[in-house]
Fold each of these.
Amino acid sequence: MAVRACGLIIYRRLQSPPPSKVADGIEYLLLQTSYGTHHWTPPKGHVDPGEDDLQTAFRETQEEAGLQASQLTLIEGYKRELHYPAHGKPKTVIYWLAEVKDCNTEIKLSEEHQAFQWLKLEDACKFAEYEDMKQTLKEVHQFLCSKE
Ligand code: AMP
């Protein structure tokens, strides 16, 4: 059976972008792992017994980025599942999408990560080295732009 993990793709909107460039004011949060090849990823982690997937996504975001559920707005209508092999086992990761209410909210890392960045779509796609994650970020951006 696949290892199951859940997380949140977190974004913020920079204050007062020019009205024609609202989408340019969006930045995505990526964390750099302190393990393995130090790849960049949204916050996510394994589902604990008795927990539902969305609870896991919020708990992991709190543990890994220091963001409480009350500091976030879950965006309805977006959910994406990724499948990849991790450490020789199939892994499923389910992501929801959430906006940080205050774009200046402090990020507090756990020991699992060594750095974080808020990145515009193009840079986020460069740091997210895996093709499925790049596609997910592009899809999220389209989704947000279509809601403008
Ligand atoms: P993670 O799931 O981010 O904890 O990473 C576990 C392992 O899977 C690491 O070796 C990563 O480099 C690799 N990995 C992470 N994300 C992806 C992905 N989207 N596609 C393929 N491999 C990945």
Amino acid sequence: MVLGKVVFILALILQIVIRYPYRTQAQTHQPDRQEQVLLTLLTIGGLVIPFIYIFTDWLAFADYASSMGIVGLGILVMAAGLGLFWRSHTDLGRNWSSTLEIHEEHRLITQGIYRQIRHPMYAAAWLMMIAQALLLSNWAAGFGGLISFGLMYFLRVPKEEQMMLEEFGEPYQHYMQQTGRIIPRRG
Ligand code: SAH
């Protein structure tokens, strides 16, 4: 459905706009091999395959029928994901980076949306990848994002938390006890 493709592209543009101010501030360093592979897979699953699907008919064999209901749900989930993506960028501020790293003036953020969950940006990515599957009615283009991001999430988060524990010690340990990874902790 054309509407799903249009919304997907608009959402990509919004993601770039939301991230842009933080990107210029982020210090760059050479990511390790695992990070490079995971980021490459994410680019393929979240960007390259969807673009091939949208702009060519090479993936037509993997198409399936969509409906207005599914695309409508996709728009709602994408809007929620983008809202959370924006909120986590404003709260994390200069501490954001595309790969795992600690900046010179790194601060531990535990306020704003980070008060509820430790990984709101990854929660936002899960929502946007689910939306991708709802908006693009094609097995490869729809699920490429979920599969590649799922892999990245499960391999990266333990490493990220280990890195934060080494850097911030007890305060991060305490913070981990107070929060859920992507789902708020009750009580
Ligand atoms: N996992 C977080 C942040 C993703 S950006 C989220 O999903 O919202 C990745 C970088 O954020 C990591 O390199 C780490 O340095 C930094 N980071 C993660 N949690 C943080 C926190 N609570 N406070 C400050 N920096 C954090």
Amino acid sequence: MNAARDRIGSTPRLLVTGGAGFIGSAYVRDVLGRRDGTRITVLDKLTYAGRRANLALAEDDPEQAARLRFVHGDIVDPTVVDPLVAEADAVLNFAAESHVDRSILDPEAFLSTGVIGVHVLLEAVRREADRATSGARSSAPRFLQVSTDEVYGSVHEGWSRESDALAPRSPYSAAKAAGELLAMSYHATYGTDVVITRGSNTYGPYQYPEKLIPLFITNAIDDQPLPLYGDGLQERDWLHVSDHAKAIDHVLHHGDPGEVYNLPGEAQLTNRAVVAAILERLGKPWSLVRTVEDRPGHDRRYALDGTRLAGLGWRNLTDFATGIAETVDWFRDNDAWWREARSGAWDDYYRRQYSARLAASREA
Ligand code: NAD
Ligand code: TDX
């Protein structure tokens, strides 16, 4: 591996799909905030999870705004995707339906975005690579697929390596695995320049409040019950969103074509330990936590081996104690942002997912 070599140049034009979501918007804010000349087009469908407000810091800064374009559209639509890929040096695909519980309730959108959407992006990248071969453009675009540790399935012991078999166990993670495999097949068959990242459970500012950490912070602020699935001893490896975004950028610039990179968080914790840290920071009592019926097919543990990423010269910058304190404070200070996210269709979702569970809940 050659960490020094930059595979896409220092001032690229990037197409960032899903760039109005949690991790995608952190990536956009971070890269534009470097003020190094990089130009970004965001393509986002603005589903319930995508919000233009997540890009306000960049859009309100004239120097950054001049290098940012926002396109409202769907990655499954080639008439939108093709001209955008034609202008890009690299495509980073963050777009996905990303919540496991919703994939259990309604799987279809996960397959449309996670499989057909990836196919449409790959076809566009393949066409542009052909144009590069015929001299119609200077170089072929790179395709980075943002994937997840969940593709390995539940890992009872040890740490998953990139060469391990994929064993996804939810419609969400099965769709993510399918997207990855499709991308890799383009590398093998057409020589498409593909890199894949498998990030750990991510947390931080601007995370949609359906996920464990922001749901529990915002419920606790309002003294609402915190619905802990099963025994709460499931383990996740928590990665701060700014490290996730920066690690993706590192792989974009330095990763080898056709390679997969785990992005671990190096903070392996039970859900109970995470909840305790949130409550301590907020000064709220454990009695808010309620044991509820478990998630079906609930993965017990994820854990990533980060040797390959370390070999590329990347190190995380934010430890969990600092990151969770800052995240709790961000939600406390940005009440309007999360109350807006928890409006509209939120109540229906919350009722479907939690009403019966909370009615039958017990002390945790
Ligand atoms: P998110 O749900 O916050 O954001 C997803 C974004 O994609 C939203 O802005 C949404 O509007 C957009 N989108 C959805 N379908 C689209 C479509 N068909 N066309 C265009 N845009 C579409 O998700 P996130 O947590 O930011 O996750 C981003 C990526 O990272 C996903 O691919 C996810 O699988 C992966 N990932 C997430 C985590 C995590 O813990 N959140 C961990 C590892 C990997
Ligand atoms: O209400 C809840 N109660 C609860 O106990 C919720 C929402 C979650 N949990 C548990 C389930 C998991 O063990 O907390 C843990 C974390 O749950 P989520 O935040 O839903 O994350 P997870 O299912 O682990 O998946 C996340 O990490 C990998 C992201 O949502 C994915 O997009 C990513 O790929």
Amino acid sequence: MVYLNGAYLPPEKASISPMDRGFLFGDGVYEVIPSYDGQMFLLDAHLERLRRSLSAIRLPDPMPDGGWRAMLQRLLQENPGADRSVYLQVTRGKAARDHAFPAQTAATVFAMVSPLAAQDPAVAETGVSAISVPDQRWGRCDIKSVALLANVLARQQAAEQAAVEAILLRDGLLTEGAASNVFVVRDGVVRTTALGPAILPGITRAFVLEVLRAGRQDCREEPITEADLRAADEIWLTSSTKEVLPVTRLDGRPVGTGRPGPVWRKALERYRQARVRATRGPGLEIHHG
Ligand code: PDD
């Protein structure tokens, strides 16, 4: 079952107009929220980022006052199961094609639930491959926009080289992955690109920083050069669907020893412990501003 504009229905019964601005212009925003045993993880932080994305594109929140939470919980009940990823999308709705906003906007709201694949245990032994590509996206990558053409092209390039992610470089600096944030480790220090318009403020990124800092791990949010990336002992990807994933080959060359590193192991362990604590029962969710 999916959710579309107030109704819960089978996906084949859900349809939107070709005049929808999401279809015509990519005029919309989205979120992806992981759910474990029916419990959404860091939901408040995802909804807060959704509000920021909506406000950045000047689209009034179509489901304020707990509307999102109630709808997503109902949708999860309609799609029972252990680990799930919840996708939601809001567009500026249907109108005659004109770039400027229509006078009357009834937003289109869509949500669906998909299985969330558990991390392959082999990853802890082998890690994954990534490639680096130029970051060809726009100047507001902090907005979780559904207009993802540059990300799609980068990820396709990665897929064609049997890599799981494309790591994006702009003006000699690391920004993020096509659908993930990137961390590097050198001499025991963890670094990730500082927040700003060039990257998405990842919910997993913030959570990983929080749990590592709680364990007194030195973590820095600062610019990372391409040379830093290539000299890293460890590279990790973080996202709501990947958790913390070790990259052991970049552009075909080994990262550090070529095996997942000790700081990654510690980070994933802390992340998993904190995640289990946060999703153990109702009302125990960890809040992010
Ligand atoms: N993508 N950067 C980009 C460009 C992303 O698309 C994502 C997530 C992230 C990580 O953010 P978070 O930790 O909040 O998931 C960073 C989602 C999972 C997707 O598009 O499917």
